[in-house]
């Protein structure tokens, strides 16, 4: 049979493409011949004998092609869209690294300039006071000068150098995680490009079309997870409660903020008892730090450091805390010129809410800009969090969840009746948006677009399950659990999810 240029779809598929598509990714020497409906996965005979031995429905690929369309139509366009988004993400991640380094350099330059200023001021003072002094005092003056210069330099060493080192460690850690994410993007980008090319070449070969389309869907799903658009709904398997009250607590706990370290340790902000508590992987309090003011929210900066928002009538500040061998060690802090209610972090950018505004700060505490404001009521900008790629910001309003673009433009509002008074908010590493609130008591998962509810994870407490006045929520990848902190309750709720 001969095919002309116009019959490109009927051209035979090259052996290389066919071998590539049919190869099992787990068992290199095996060919994919079957499909497991339970896992929606292609299998070779070795897969069927091992990973899918207990699965209820495994069929031959040849049977499938007779009964259903291959689903390859439109795949090319979808691949192109996702390819473009991954490219954009890589560009923004590279920009993040540069801006982080710039922040650090600027901050150290400012600090050194400040010390130079202090020295100059002191020398000028000496110069003025030495005018009119009679001879014989020069030696004394020199000694005094040496002492004071030394004390200025020492202060720089003890305070500023420590802060700069702290910040340097953050920059290195964040840079490392961004770099590893860039590598993941590169690898997914390569896979997507490869399939984009192959999809054009398969032609009418039904089985190969089906295999390619299933493989494409898997890669696109991986890409969407990286893009924070996974959209996978959580399913609650079981729930437990854990008491986090400690002997020095004078009151019942109010847990306004929770965050989980990558190793599974949990940090809780107990605003009533004015403490930050560290829980081990079994949710037992192993350490705490007395804030001596009201801590209101917490966010992760690096795998071993968090930032805590502190707010009383007179104090508005962000306090950094390092977790070191099961102990909480306070680091630097910076003051805010406004109230603070919530805090979020993304690759060196800190987002702080005041109740009516959302502000962006750099790691050194420099206010970059105000991103959003709504002065129509008191708690229109309450808690905030950021999508994994940084291109969407979520804020809870007293009756809504709002989604903003990177520049603060309002993209979406969610006014689901089940989300009456959203108070706690958390975005998972795959971009799943968790919201908890009061009217009614509930923990919900909202789609990444921030428009509609995806799943109800917990509702009003009946006997032992459920929640009452949930105030904070966080997902732990290590334990596949959603942790919920409540108002006037000594227990955290832990929901195991799939
Ligand atoms: Zn296999
Ligand atoms: Zn299976």
UniProtKB/TrEMBL annotation:
<keyword id="KW-0677">Repeat</keyword>
<dbReference type="InterPro" id="IPR015943">
    <property type="entry name" value="WD40/YVTN_repeat-like_dom_sf"/>
</dbReference>
<protein>
    <recommendedName>
        <fullName>B box-type domain-containing protein</fullName>
    </recommendedName>
</protein>
<feature type="repeat" description="NHL">
    <location>
        <begin position="256"/>
        <end position="282"/>
    </location>
</feature>
<dbReference type="InterPro" id="IPR001258">
    <property type="entry name" value="NHL_repeat"/>
</dbReference>
């Amino acid at each position: 049979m001969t095919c002309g240029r116009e019959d490109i779809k009927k051209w035979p598929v090259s052996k290389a493409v066919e071998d590539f598509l049919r190869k099992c990714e787990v068992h290199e020497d095996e060919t994919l011949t079957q499909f497991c409906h339970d896992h929606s996965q292609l299998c070779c005979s070795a897969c069927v004998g091992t990973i899918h031995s207990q699965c209820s429905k495994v069929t031959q690929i040849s049977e499938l092609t007779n009964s259903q369309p291959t689903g390859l139509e439109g795949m090319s366009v979808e691949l192109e869209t996702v390819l473009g988004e991954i490219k954009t993400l890589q560009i923004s991640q590279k920009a993040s690294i540069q801006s982080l380094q710039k922040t650090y350099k600027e901050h150290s330059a400012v600090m050194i300039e400040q010390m130079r200023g202090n020295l100059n001021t002191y020398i000028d003072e000496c110069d003025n006071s030495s005018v009119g002094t009679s001879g014989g005092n020069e030696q004394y003056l020199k000694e005094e000068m040496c002492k004071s210069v030394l004390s200025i330099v020492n202060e720089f060493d003890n305070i500023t150098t420590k802060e700069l080192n702290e910040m340097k460690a953050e920059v290195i850690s964040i840079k490392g995680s961004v770099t590893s994410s860039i590598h993941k993007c590169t690898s997914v980008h390569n896979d997507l490009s490869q399939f984009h090319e192959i999809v054009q070449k398969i032609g009418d070969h039904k089985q190969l079309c089906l295999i390619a389309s299933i493989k494409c869907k898997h890669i696109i799903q991986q890409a969407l997870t990286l893009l924070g658009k996974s959209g996978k709904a959580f399913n609650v398997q079981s729930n437990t409660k854990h008491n986090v009250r400690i002997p020095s607590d004078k009151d019942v706990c109010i847990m306004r903020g929770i965050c989980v370290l990558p190793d599974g340790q949990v940090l809780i902000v107990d605003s009533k008892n004015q403490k930050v508590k560290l829980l081990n992987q079994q949710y037992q309090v192993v350490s705490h730090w007395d804030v001596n003011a009201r801590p209101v929210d917490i966010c992760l900066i690096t795998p071993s450091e968090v930032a805590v928002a502190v707010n009383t009538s007179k104090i508005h500040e962000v306090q950094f805390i390092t977790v070191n061998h099961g102990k909480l060690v306070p680091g630097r802090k910076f003051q805010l010129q406004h109230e603070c209610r919530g805090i979020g972090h993304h690759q060196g950018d800190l987002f702080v809410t005041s109740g009516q505004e959302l502000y962006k700060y750099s790691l050194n505490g420099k206010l970059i800009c105000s991103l959003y404001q709504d002065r129509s009521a008191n708690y229109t900008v309450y808690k905030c969090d950021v999508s994994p790629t940084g291109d969407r910001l979520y804020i809870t309003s007293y009756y809504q969840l709002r989604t903003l673009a990177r520049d603060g433009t309002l993209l979406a509002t969610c006014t689901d009746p089940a989300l009456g008074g959203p108070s706690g908010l958390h975005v998972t590493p795959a971009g799943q948006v968790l919201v908890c609130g009061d009217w009614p008591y509930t923990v919900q998962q909202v789609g990444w677009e921030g428009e509609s509810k995806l799943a109800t994870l917990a509702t009003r407490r009946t006997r032992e399950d459920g929640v009452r006045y949930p105030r904070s929520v966080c997902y732990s990848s290590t334990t596949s659990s959603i942790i919920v902190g409540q108002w006037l309750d000594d227990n955290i709720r832990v929901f195991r999810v799939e």
